[in-house]
Structures are given as structure tokens and as C-alpha cells.
Amino acid sequence: MTFPVVGMVGGGQLARMTHEAGIPLGIRFKLLSETPQESAAQVVSEVVIGDHRDLETLRAFARGCDVITFDHEHVPIEHLRALEADGIPVRPGPDALVHAQDKGVMRARLDALGVPCPRHRIVADPADVVRFAAEGAAERAAEAGGQDDGFPVILKTVRGGYDGKGVWVVHNAREAAEPFRAGVPVLAEEKVDFVRELAANVVRSPHGQAVAYPVVESRQVDGVCDTVIAPAPELPEARALAAEEMALRIAKELGVVGHLAVELFETRDGRILVNELAMRPHNSGHWTQDGAITSQFANHVRAVLDLPLGDPRPRAKWTVMANVLGGDYPDMYSAYLHCMARDPQLKIHMYGKDVKPGRKVGHVNTYGDDLGDVLERARHAAGYLRGTITE
Ligand code: ADP
After folding, report:
1. Which stretches of the chain are DSSP H helices?
2. pLDDT tens across 30-88, in order?
3. Where exactly are the structural domains of the chain?
4. Does any ligand 1 atom lie closer than 6 A to the CB of residue 263?
5. Phi, psi of 195, rounded to the nearest 5 degrees
6. Does 319 sit in the ligand 1 pocket, CB within 6 Å?
């Protein structure tokens, strides 16, 4: 029996950390990366440089791999079907992955499953956005009285967005013109008055085994995830369980294999709505590297190989993950001395990326019994590494 080869498409930090999780298991790892400089390409020994949108490149890469999985959701669905037809297991498969690629397909499927989502529909042009807004205003007037024009409205291109790119908050027909310029279908959504964002992370294997991590709170700054708190503070147990069950159900119904992140809004009146789905390890699960018995990366590797899944339970009462964004100081290593000396529980995860202002270059995890203290330590370290905190 030889050890299997996991082929990962995409050379970002998720591939880097998935590779890391496979090392203790002796799993061989092969990477398809766009450039040799990418985060995972720096550390994986078997790297193919090529374009994931080219079928022949994918086919050549897949030869010799026991399974193909992903660091991102940008491989064309028809190429994944071709690989499957060649006999290569693709996990998650194209029928599942299409829901993470296309927000229109995702919304339609979740509607059919009766999963609560923000009010939404595909809109044809700015005039249609005005109609969508008016429909919302009419619904509100019927429920609660009052009168407004229904704006602001959220517009999203159905494909190609990430970290808030591809998402617009528009206040009138004039502003609604911009999202249509890309020539990609546009989804309109009500602007949810949420109290916070949560994420329900689950992992499912081809066998049908599934595990759920505790639901976390995810705080965004300027559309980018800033901090994740595990578990989500003061989330009533029944609501947390309902969110976990919903994520497990989505994973099962969509046939997801591997890690599924279900990004959620918690509304003022205690409802949970689905924002979007990601079928790969996810930023809201980075805390599991140091805060859970089995990390999301280790469980993703197990799932795509159809091995029994590991225990998702937390190791500490509270774990906080804080993203490290690039700042004005390119030399983050010189900050390690202070950060490590200040907090021996701190775990630093750097991605090997050049430091550019606002770019996610790493994250830190820390944990403990007192949430205020854990949050302070995580934020301090992330700020110190970035250079926004100097003592
Ligand atoms: P991306 O694909 O860039 O991650 P998302 O759909 O997750 O895009 O949206 C990015 C952010 O925009 C969300 O994290 C949330 O803060 C905000 N957002 C998205 N949809 C809505 C909505 N319907 N109502 C209110 N805020 C939203």
C-alpha cells in the first residue's frame, strides 16, 4: 500500500495549510499553481505551474493524482466534469461546487431546500433594481406600515467575487449601473439589518460521515474578515444547533465532500439567514488549527480521501483568530520577538506572501478562559505584526 497523492488546484494559503495538515499522515501532495511565488508553491515539493482554466493543463496535472481538490472555486465546471469522465475523483464534485461558484445557482437551490436567505432575485438592469427595491418597500409597508424607496440594495455579480469585491451597496438607479459593467449576471439582495455575521463550518466525506464545528462569530472590516471568535459568544444553544444542523443538511443535499463554510447573518429578531457557501477550507475555520481537536485542514484531507473524520470539538473555552493584514512595515519577522514574548499561547501562521497594505498575509490564533483577554491578545498580536500597534 502506498500513500495517496492529493492534487490541489490553486496555490494560495489554503493549499499551503492543507498541505501542512497532510504531512503527519504521510500524504503526498501535488499542487497546480499559477506562479512559483504563490503561498503554497513555496513549500510544496511537487508543483506544476499552469492555468487552472485550461483543460489540458488540468488533465496533465491530474495524471498520477488519486483525488483532486481545491484552494479556490474558479475551475470551470465543464473541466471538472471532463476530469470525472477521465476517472479522476474530484472532491467536492462539480454538482456541488457550482453552488459555491455561482451565487444565483446557490440562491435558487437554497430556496428549493427551504433554507432561509435574504430576499433576492436576479436583476436585468438598473431599472429592474429600482423595481426590486420597490417590491421590498411594498412588503415592508404591508407588514409594518411606513413608506421608503426600498434602497439601499445589495448587488452582487453571481461569479468572480471575493473579500467583498463583486459586492455593491447601492442607493439609487445611478449607482446600480456599475455592477452590470462586468457583463456577468447580477443578483440583487435586500440589505440585511444583521447584528453580526456567523459561520457554520462542517466537513463531509464521500461515505456520508459528517462533523460540525462550533458556530463562530466572524467580524469583518471593510469587507475583509478581521476576527473570528469560537464559539460565537452568547449564541443561544438552540440557535447554534439549528445553524449546525442547517449546514449539515446543506452539505448532504448538495453532495459536498470536504469542508463547507456556510456564512450566516444573525438578524436583530434572532433569525439566521445564509449569506454564502464556500466549499474548501475557509478563513472562519482557521481557529481550528490551534483551537480544535482536528483542524479544518486535517478534516478536509481526511474527507477527500474518504478516511474517518476527526473530532471537531474545541480544545479551549475560547479561541480567537485575527487576520494579519499587510501594513507599512514589510518586515513582520522583527515583530515576532515582542509578540511571542508577550503571549506564549500565541500561534502565528504566515503565508509567505509579500506584505502589501490591506493584503491578508497571515493570521494568529490564541485561546484561554477569559474572552476579553483572549480577544485583546489576538488583536494586539495582529496589530503589532501589521505595525498599527507599537508597544
Ligand atoms: P464575497 O464573495 O466577496 O465574500 P459576500 O457575499 O460574502 O461576498 O459579501 C461580502 C460582505 O458584504 C458580507 O460579509 C457582508 O458583510 C456584506 N453583505 C453581503 N450580502 C449582504 C446582504 N444581503 N445584506 C447585508 N450585507 C451583506
Report:
1. 13-22, 55-62, 77-85, 94-101, 103-113, 126-144, 237-254, 288-291, 296-304, 336-342, 371-386
2. 999 999 999 999 999 999 999 999 999 999 999 999 999 999 999 999 999 999 999 99
3. 5-90, 119-190, 194-386
4. yes
5. -85, -30
6. no
Ligand 1 site, residue 140, Cβ cutoff 6 A: no
Give the closest residue to 325 by CA, choosing from 238, 251, 227: 227
Ligand 1 pocket, 266 CB below 6 A? no
Amino acid at 31: L
pLDDT band at 329 (very low <50, low <70, confident <90, very high): confident
What's the pLDDT score for residue 1?
57
Torsion of Cα atoms, 171 then 263 then 378 then 230, to 10°: 140
Which segments within 146-223 are labelled E, that is strand? 153-157, 167-170, 186-190, 194-204, 210-212, 216-221
CATH topology for the 194-386 domain: D-amino Acid Aminotransferase; Chain A, domain 1 (3.30.470)
pTM above 0.90, yes or no: yes
Dist CA 319 CA 139 (whole Å): 41
pLDDT, tens digit (0-9, with 9 covering 90-100), for 229-278: 999 999 999 999 999 999 999 999 999 999 999 999 999 999 999 999 99
The C-alpha R_g of the chain, in whole angstroms, comes to 21
Whole-number Å distance between alpha carbons of 209 and 203: 8
Residue in 156, 194, 275 to alter for ligand 1 test, most ligand atoms within 8 A of Cβ: 275
Q: Classify domain 119-190 by CATH number.
A: 3.30.1490.20
Helix/strand/coil percent split, the chain, to 5 = 35, 30, 35
Distance 164 CA to ligand 1 centre (A): 6
Would you say 187 and 122 are in contact if contact means Cβ atoms under 8 Å apart?
yes
One-letter amino acid for residue 110 of the chain = L
The CATH number of 5-90 is 3.40.50.20
- Whether the CB of 387 sits within 6 Å of ligand 1: no
- Spatial CA neighbour of 155 closest among 168, 164, 165: 168
